[in-house]
């Protein structure tokens, strides 16, 4: 077995559902990142301004890189968040064990094995300045869909990416074909018009607004967020490639994808940590989740939330107060 084959086999043994190898060269689409940032589509994610040049070529992040191992770890075992009156909807990835820690520990083992073979590498899981989806597409894991997600023919798009930049020229995999065809279901499913054919305006995307955006959510964006309190899966739910997605199940759900808005808005620090401490939502913090739950109450159309929102309208926190007053103004008066 070649080093490339052995490395992919090690990744699969470590829990990866899919694994592939790309050359450590930027794909032509890497240059699109610069335009995306310049057009302001990154919103307030300032890290893109700082490291756009590094992101475009993995060798600027790890100069020894000759190849890139990219792995996908499915979380398709969780159920989609349904729209249920009074409930907040949570994206599937967010109800699992925090993938940053879980995948890092698995990939650490693969890196240790690589070092035993006399090679070396550097690990990435989400937070490093690496265009993970683009390297994933080049490594043959799948194609970048119209919803901007990397989609695998075998496991759909409900997977997280982790990988290794490797200091050896390894036999690369062939890129997978684009299988979107004439389908446009994700574009139709996006409630806020954030998607335009493989280009996402983060400023309009609920997943950006409810997780990345700090402080008050711009008024014109609030209605489009519906009852999503953490992330959004609508452009993946719509995708036919997720209908039969399977998983080996390394990432298992810890929570349901719907929780009572009343409960979420009322959580104190301890309650928040108990519920979300092991999930990626810990970084959203209690205040962010409370803001999103209060906003979702306004989008729920349920007069029953008026009492909670009336007391929220006197909250000492200006963000929670303003959000509560906006939500209150949208609800019908009690019959
Ligand atoms: C910033 C970020 C976000 C931002 C911006 C998303 C975006 N579309 O850029 C926000 C907060 C909105 C977000 C949301 C989500 N994210 Co996010 N996010 C990231 C992060 C940290 C950087 C992404 C980035 O560089 N964006 C900048 C844009 C320009 O780059 P890009 O989307 O990769 O785009 C490239 C391609 O589209 C390509 N391209 C453009 N046109 C074409 C045409 C063709 C033919 C080809 C081949 C390529 C191509 O060129 C671009 C680069 O120049 C990555 C982790 C990482 N380090 O890569 C995770 C990551 C992309 N996110 C992930 C997830 C799971 C999500 C959510 C599903 C979470 C949720 N349920 O709420 C949503 C999905 C929203 C969506 N439709 O994309 C996963 C995606 C896994 C997958 N299967 O694709 C990643 C890889 C994290 C991980 N390690 O698992 N995310
Ligand atoms: S995550 Fe939601 S808001 Fe963002 S692009 Fe997909 S459907 Fe649109
Ligand atoms: S919904 Fe259709 S167009 Fe969108 S990513 Fe899936 S296959 Fe492609």
Structural features, described:
- This protein is an alpha+beta fold and 335 residues long.
- The chain has a domain at 3-77 and 96-166.
- Helices cover 37% and strands 12% of the residues.
- It has helices spanning 3-13, 32-38, 47-56, 99-116, 132-138, 185-189, 206-212, 219-222, 234-237, 261-266, 269-276, 285-300, 306-312, 318-330; strands at residues 18-23, 67-74, 87-90, 121-124, 143-144, 150-151, 159-166, 228-230, 258-260.
- The strands form three sheets. A four-stranded antiparallel β-sheet has the order 1-2-7-4, with helices on both faces. The chain has a three-stranded mixed β-sheet with strand order 8-3-9. A two-stranded antiparallel sheet has the order 5-6.
- A hairpin with a 5-residue loop joins strand 5 (143-144) and strand 6 (150-151).
- The longest helix is centred in the first third of the chain and has 18 residues, at 99-116.
- Residues 29-30, 32-33, 36, 45, 91, 93, 125-126, 130-134, 137, 144, 147-150, 157, 159-161, 198, 200, 202, 205, 207-208, 211-212, 231-233, 235 line the site of cobalamin.
Secondary structure: helix percent:
25-40%
Enumerate how many helices there are, as a single number: 14
- Strand count: 9
Counting helices, strands and paired strands, the structural category is: alpha+beta
Q: Which molecules are bound besides the chains? A: cobalamin, iron/sulfur cluster
As a percent range, the share of strand residues is 5-15%
What is the overall silhouette? elongated
Give me the Rg, rounded.
21 Å
- End-to-end separation in angstroms reads 72 Å
- Major β-sheet annotation: 4 strands, antiparallel
- Contiguous runs where pLDDT drops below 50 for at least 5 residues: none
The average pLDDT is 95
**What's the helix-strand series?**
HEHHEEHEHEEEHHHEHEHHHHH
Spatial strand sequence of the major β-sheet? 1-2-7-4
């Amino acid at each position: 077995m070649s080093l490339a084959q052995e490395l992919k086999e090690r990744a699969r043994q470590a829990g990866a559902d899919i694994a592939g190898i790309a050359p450590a060269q930027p794909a032509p689409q890497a240059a699109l990142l610069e335009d995306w940032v310049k057009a302001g589509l990154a919103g307030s994610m300032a890290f893109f301004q700082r490291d756009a040049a590094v992101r475009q070529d993995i060798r600027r992040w790890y100069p020894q890189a000759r190849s890139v191992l990219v792995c996908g770890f499915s979380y398709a075992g969780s159920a989609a968040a349904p729209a249920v009156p009074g409930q907040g909807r949570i994206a599937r990835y967010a109800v699992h064990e925090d993938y940053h820690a879980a995948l890092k520990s698995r990939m650490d083992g693969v890196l240790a094995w690589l070092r035993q073979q006399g090679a070396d590498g550097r690990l990435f899981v989400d937070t490093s300045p690496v265009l993970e989806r683009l390297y994933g597409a080049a490594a043959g894991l799948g194609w970048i869909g119209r919803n901007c997600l990397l989609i695998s023919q075998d496991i759909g798009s409900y997977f997280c990416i982790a990988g290794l930049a490797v200091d050896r020229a390894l036999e690369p995999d062939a890129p997978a074909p684009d299988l979107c065809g004439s389908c446009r279901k994700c574009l139709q499913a996006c409630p806020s018009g954030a998607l335009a054919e493989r280009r996402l305006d983060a400023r309009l995307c609920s997943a950006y607004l409810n997780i990345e955006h700090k402080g008050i959510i711009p008024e014109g964006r609030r209605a489009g967020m519906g009852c999503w309190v953490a992330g959004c899966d609508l452009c993946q739910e719509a995708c036919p490639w997720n209908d039969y997605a399977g998983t080996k199940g390394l990432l298992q759900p810890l929570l349901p994808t719907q929780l009572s808005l009343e409960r979420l808005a009322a959580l104190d620090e301890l309650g928040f940590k108990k519920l979300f401490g092991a999930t990626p939502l810990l970084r959203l913090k209690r205040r962010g989740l409370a803001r999103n739950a209060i906003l979702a109450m306004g989008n729920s159309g349920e007069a029953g939330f008026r009492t909670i929102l009336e007391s929220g309208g006197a909250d000492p926190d200006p963000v929670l107060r303003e959000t509560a007053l906006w939500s209150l103004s949208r609800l019908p008066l009690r019959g």
